[in-house]
Design brief:
1 helix
């Protein structure tokens, strides 16, 4: 699995939203 990559993208996405 690529949990690391997913986590990174999720964090960046959240930071961009708020």
């Amino acid at each position: 699995g690529r949990v690391y990559v997913i986590n990174k993208i999720k964090k960046r996405f959240k930071a961009r939203q708020g």
